[in-house]
Amino acid sequence: MPAYLDCNATSPVEEKVAEAVIRFTRDECGNAGSRTHEFGARAKQAVQKARDQVRSVVDAEREEIIFTSGATEADNLAILGLAAEGAKLGKRHVVTTAIEHKAVLEPIEHLVKQGFEATILPVDSDGRVSADDVLSAVRDDTLFVSVMHVNNETGVVQPIDDIATGLAENDVYLHVDAAQSFGKEIQTLKSKRIDLISISGHKIYGPKGIGVLVARRRGYKTVPLQPLMFGGGQERGLRPGTMPVPLAVGLGIAAEIAGKDHKRRAEHCLAIRGEALKALGELGPIFHGDPNNVVPHVLNISLPGIDAEAAMVSLKGIAAVSNGSACTSHNYKPSHVLEAMGLDEDEISTALRISWCHLTGEVDWGLIRDSLMALRR
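The structure corresponding to this sequence follows.
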């Protein structure tokens, strides 16, 4: 089997998670909304335990955990769900960055079509937004700020702590897309100043098709979200539909393991990073992303003289890598993240994203290097 080095696109599943998902799929048929028998009671109990497992990682309350189909739906619910409140208060301005996932940028584009105004901030050449720029962009009519925690293409950690601190005396809502950081960069997401957090199950070694929007209360006041769908009233009326109990259970277990094991996982990823840098260094890579503010399991590099598409073809059967976000890879458009960082056309066309995790086994980096080197001959 080739080495799987595309964990930012989707991660392998923890064995304990897989076992639990299978058990609740095969052996537990109850609907968590059924209150009249023990099957429904067990399903509800399992979902509530999953809420507790998720909430413990971000120091939230059980009632603040809203299950969704993934981070994309969570982003949409956070952004579009606040639109009515913005219209009511006359707050029709939002702030975000040029490197956000399309699950944030496209809902904001939709708001703009509805009469909102968006300030989309640039990033520096290292792929990091300035916290001062974010705070300076906030106006009296700003409804929310949305900044991702870790960029999915470069692995660069954004200054969420500084942004949250700077907004301490401001009532603007702060949304953080934490699809790439939940269960990995732990402490920041515990900040009570972050109102909304989007989480993805399949980025933290859990199942696909499940995610969470954390919607923190301010005292006794809930975030004034409006649902995007209707028909059942589940999840505090914000997300109708039958709860996928096996998926929620799987996400809960994945979250619990991540909360306990994130330091050991990071150490394993750092060791792999060292091996990758040693082998690929012979190819003269150009690194994209602030080396002082990057997660340990991601490399975004350009290899001069080696087209990224050709590289991926050359590595088939050896290693699975990518040249950007899996969500937009079918479009074959230049990475909007790398463009925002000011990379030229050649650097973008030769850029590869290599991402691994604690479940990554032995990688033959020498074979990867030699295969890529052959493309220059």
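The chain has two domains: 3-11+261-374, 15-256.
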